[in-house]
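This part of the workshop introduces the protein records we will be handling. A learned vocabulary of local backbone shapes supplies the integers on the structure line. Getting from the letters to the tokens is the skill we practise here. As an example, a complete record with its sequence and its structure tokens follows.
=====
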Amino acid sequence: MSTEQIDPVSPEVVPKVGSRPTVRVPAVSALQRFDRNQHRSKTLPAVLFVSLAVHALVLGVCALIVFKHPQLIEEIFTTVTDPESASDPISEQSMLQTDDLNQQQFSPESMISNETASQLQADIKGPIDLNVSDSIPQIESDSSDLPGIAGIKIGEETSGRMSANVKRSMVQKFGGNSASEAAVASGMKWLTNHQLPNGSWSFEHSKHVDCKGQCSQDGSFKSCPTGATGLALLAFLGGGHTHKSGDYQREVKRGIDFLIKSGKSAGVGLDLRGKTVANEGMYVQGLCTIALCECAAMTKDSRVKKAAEGAIDFIVQAQHPEDGGWRYDRLQPGDTSVVGWQVMALKSGYDAKLKFAPQAFKNAESFLKRAGVDGGARYVYFPGSAEPGEGGALPTPTMTAVGLLCRMYMGWDHKNKKLAEGVAYLDTVKPDPNNLYFNYYATQVMHHWGGEEWKRWNEVMRDQLVRTQHPLKDGHMGGSWDIADPHGGGGGRLYMTCLSVMTLEVYYRHLPMYSRENIKVEF
């Protein structure tokens, strides 16, 4: 048999006895493998270089977009859906539905024992029928061994509401209970059910498409959406809910967006008053500014901070240069009621580390000295007025509460005898079931003061508010409060509900200033 040359790349036919010929593909030669590997080693670096260049270009473009439009990141992670959509990407549904709540039975003994107030607020988003007794046992307000209040000193005004553990402990420490927290949660649910599609709230709450007049007592300030929105936001922020954390991120984001878009730049800061029809202008500016400042402090959001700075600038520019106060419009001689909201706004701006002239505080202090009676133990509405009562020169409980809180913010402490006299006076007055405006300010004064005076005040205030809230069986109105305020007609049911919620949040919304050094927080 002759030997034939076989082409290395051609198949070799191998005859086989008694069978069909088979085809064998010979192995590639070492020279060919070397050539192919050499080709790959030349092209691989080029492919890698092109890939890296493309990725770098894409990342550079993305970085440029984010740098120029930082709000896009927030919008991506807190997408606002249409109210008609079936699901909410941020807010979670309550595990307890309406039928479940109707079947729940609450007793005074069970309200503060097994389930914590913080868990109750997180799990129950709706009005609840509560039977609250004055005999509910309370944890002593000077207890210091509660979980969560240990480890790190509180550094910011809003620290108490930003951690579930701390919030739960502060509810227990300062006299709240599961009933008060359930009332707060129910109030927030009512507010959620009345937010308008554009993110605002209205004192004419019944015009909401889901309400359709089911809730009575609309406010007369029908053209004041910024004021209603600012109040509602304060209620949510007071519970630790922002557009970046909490159970109501979607609602807060839409409300904050509405406020910022509604503000007008008039060369003197950000004007949030909107269309004023009566005397509400500077009241609205003050409470909207507080909302923006608190949100900026809690989230460190640069967009919100910029708006808050503009709102603070407007307040500073609106202060009367000689009188030191604020009233219904810019540069008017002040009254104590309007001054209270502006001082709280300035304090919120200070806590948020916003920059403004400290002279604004000094001017306000000058006004308060003239509004004070008995050395500052009590306060009048309008210094120098000959008219008696709320509108005149005689001291009243409401103006005294406002004035004392302002003096606390500006440095008066436990050693001040006139502050002690003022607190003793409020202790004798006690919470007024028909004047929530007074209760709101006086509750803050007594909470900051602490001691037996606070315990006596809190027991009445807390249970009074829980009892007067509309229960679940009242349907769409459940979770709200009826007007019980001589000045509540302007804001109506929404005003009453917001102030009631904010008053019941006092346990963690404001850190008690005279015991902060002894309070430590574990985050």
In short: Residues 116-131+141-521 form a domain with the Glycosyltransferase fold (CATH 1.50.10.20). The chain has 18 helices and eight strands. The longest strand covers residues 12-14.
